[in-house]
Amino acid sequence: MAEDSDLEKTESATPRRRQKAREEGQVARSRELVSFALLSAGFFGGWALSGHIGGHLESMIRGAFTFDHATVFDTNQMLIGAGNAGIEGLTALAPLLALTALAALVAPIALGGWLLSSKSLEPKWSKLNPIKGLGRIFSPNGAIQLCMALAKTLVVGGIGALAFWNHHDDVLALVTQPMSVAMTSAGHLIAVCCATTVAGMFLIAALDVPYQIWQYEKKLRMTKEEVKREHRENEGDPHVKGRIRSQQRAIARRRMMAQVPKADVIVTNPTHFAVALQYTDGKMRAPKVVAKGVNLVAARIREIAAEHNVPLLEAPPLARALYYNVRLDAEVPGVLYGAVAEVLAWVYQLRRFNTQGGAEPVRPSDLDVPAELDKRGPAAEEDEDIEDIEDVEELDPQARGNNDRGNSASRNDGGRA
């Protein structure tokens, strides 16, 4: 049952599926909307341009029936007259033809947007298969299209016939009216019949447009397996991504560990947390965290610090506050300036003691750390603090540059314990 559900097209089309369909020339189109637009353009255009068209047609008819005995047998004059009549007719209908051509272009764009696709013009031999052609004709969609065509014929024809029947007395009365009055009445009757026909086409188009949109969306539906496959193609294979992420973590860890020998002091918890602080007078506005970790990462930070004689200070509240509230390669916040200043003062005194002797400085204790900062944050696992390293480099591109500069910068580390 689960396999069957994965094969059913129940999922909405993804943006990529829609883009691919447009590239292949598949968009929602309604023939009835185009027919309605053409009919409306012809009717309203003819109504608005009736004076222009009537003037040119009158000139054309007058020219055609104006002749004398000398020109009636001249074939050249007949050809000239026919040409002039053609020019007059084309001039009369040119605005109306342009308006209908514009309607034919705008109507499809209004539903499916502007689209030029060469793939839709490519020959497909499958369309010449008579068996598939018969299948399309006798398919449910073909039956629906046949019903739509019959309904269109019945609605439009019925509305036109009803309008004519309601004015049949006026039509019969035309033969008894003078020419000028009859022409005006005939024009009025034609306008009424055309208007009712346009209204009928509007009804057909209003029913066909939502159906075509529904049919188009149904055609673009995807199975759950297709959605998963497309997601894998867009996002990449999860196994490959996991391998890449593992390598990124290793690189991030090595980059962070490379900063530990350059740190001024390592603040520890003493076993669970380790945070490396660095400050260069004249180059930094405030001390910054260059490395941090928990559990195994913290242990490795302490090992590297011991190998390079970087002082270690056990200050659990400060270590936790720095770990949870200061991102990697970020400056220490102002609320921790006092505590960090005491730690750095102890480091400088320790350096002086190692080089010049004298009284050994007392390790700082009872550092002033706000209680709200000494709280457990969301990250407390070994792998999560490595992810924090990657997040810093993704959110702050300068972090990578600062680390790289730190690898090449030389510092005077004399006097470290």
From TrEMBL:
The keyword Cell membrane applies. InterPro entries: FlhB (IPR006136), T3SS_substrate_exporter (IPR006135), T3SS_substrate_exporter_C (IPR029025). It is found in: Cell membrane. Signal peptide: none annotated. GO terms for biological process: bacterial-type flagellum assembly; protein secretion. GO terms for cellular component: plasma membrane. Belongs to the type III secretion exporter family. Required for formation of the rod structure in the basal body of the flagellar apparatus. Together with FliI and FliH, may constitute the export apparatus of flagellin. Keywords: Bacterial flagellum biogenesis, Bacterial flagellum protein export, Cell membrane, Cell projection, Cilium, Flagellum, Membrane, Protein transport, Transmembrane, Transmembrane helix, Transport. Residues 400-411 have a biased composition (Polar residues). The chain crosses the membrane at residues 33-50, 92-116, 137-165, 185-211. Residues 1-25, 357-417 are annotated as: Disordered. It comes from the Bacteria. The gene is flhB. Residues 380-396 have a biased composition (Acidic residues). SUPFAM superfamilies: EscU C-terminal domain-like. Its main location: membrane. PANTHER family: FLAGELLAR BIOSYNTHETIC PROTEIN FLHB. This is Flagellar biosynthetic protein FlhB. The keyword Protein transport applies.
